[in-house]
Amino acid sequence: MTRLRTRTWVLNGVLVVLLGGAAFGIYQAFSPSADTAQAQTRTTPVRRATVTETVSAAGTVASGYTGAANFTSAGKVTAIDVKVGDVVSAGQKLATIDSTQAAKQLQVAKANLTVAEDNLDTSGTSSTSGQTGAQAQDTTASLQAKVDQAQLDVDNAQAALDATVLTAPGAGTVTAVNGSVGQQSSSGSSGGSGSSSSTQSSTSSGSGAQSGSGQQQSSSSSGSSGFIEITDMNSLLVNTSIAEIDVSKVKAGQQSTVTLNALPDKPIQASVSKVDLTPTTSGSVVSYGAQLTLTNPPSGLRPGQSASVVVTVAEADNVLSVPAAAVQTTGTTSTVTVQQNGNTVPRQVEIGVRGEATVEIKSGLSEGDSVVMTAASPSATSGTSGQRSGGLGGFGGGQGGFTGAQQGGLGGGRGRG
Asked: What spans are recorded as compositionally biased (Low complexity) (predicted)?
């Protein structure tokens, strides 16, 4: 009996120990760690540097001039004198349509003009017996009107004959030939335009035409606007759209950097040439078109290539600066935390150019002052591993401050230390 009691007490004691250990484990698992609640701090001195504010956007390479050449009269295409890639000058012959009928109409019009002129000349020398002075004047006026009409017919016939020859509306490179010899070309219009930040068509496209093989085809391909299209490949620019929040900062003449997606390691210098005054709205997004002129475009650059654009909207050289993450702004008031005599105290400052990584300090701080930055500590596990791998995990390196805190989307500033 005594042995049974002893075994019972032993078992109860073991159960108490196990339950106590489980309760302690649950408490440790769910109670906040001291390291988690504790914030990490770091100081950095106020330094002199160059602070740059930029606006970023996406862009597309375009030509400063595009022209679309269309026949102004209908007819069968008899010759095409250029091909894609040819460089042409303004007024150069591009293609022709059948001129047989137009030539005959001009011949007839000229013959009618000759007859009308002869009749007028004859009336001036013939006898006017039996006619009063007024009647003679009426006769002369009637014959002169016939001469004038005949001359107008000649001019129209000549214009129709000239229209059988298609010429270049401007200088550039042939980028599309939307037709073939033997097809029936419809009448259209020819013209050119400068590139715009919005999509536009410089001329109306031709209608359907009968090809030499008997199949119906369009005289202009999808998205094209001319029988023959010409693009100035030597006058390239970049079209972009500026977000409404940034458009007041962007002005003509500001320096920019264009990076082609196809050549990410070769940035191109550019400058803002114009900013649209009226917006473009897509859904709830409002933006303003802008154009950039390339300073020294590389060879092989082509319209339609996509690029990223960075416009420098403000810059301050050799000024006092602190990491952007150290500045707290509420309304129009900006403050920083300064380490002074072993204590941390807030101090109001006046800021200037606000970059992505650094901010210009106009007043409130002196060079060498220690600015305190605070970052929330990660969890106990991740914080421990972060400290093992390189110190405070909540801060970025160097003057850049918090590496992730100021990395915005389009329109963010950029600091340069």
From this structure: 122-137, 179-188, 195-226, 376-387
